[in-house]
Specification:
The protein is mainly β and 115 residues long. The chain has strands at 3-7, 10-13, 18-25, 33-39, 46-51, 57-59, 67-72, 77-82, 91-99, 102-105, 109-114. The strands form two sheets. Strands 2, 4, 5, 6, 9, 10 and 11 form a seven-stranded mixed sheet that branches.
Amino acid sequence: QVQLVESGGGLVQAGGSLRLSCAASGSSLRKNAMGWYRQAPGKQRELVATITSGGTTNYADSVKGRFTISRDNARNTGYLQMNSLKPEDTAVYYCNLLDALRLYWGQGTQVTVSS
């Protein structure tokens, strides 16, 4: 059974940084694509960043140059480094994993950026 557990969210001032983690079990991050999405109150869930099994990354325009997606294959953990945070980055952040054409989601972690 595939499980994803996010951590690292919290309250930070604008301009600050946070690093989110996504610990995976039951599936290998090295062999599968993973991504980070976010959902702000009253809004739809939106793509933040993705990374393929080959290491190719993709970012939403709103986070390019500020966020970095990565993974540690030995730890089977994905990361989202978030710098220069803005109040509009406030949302619940979710990681997902595509394994055998099935998409798995974590439970989410809250990120709040104060102005």
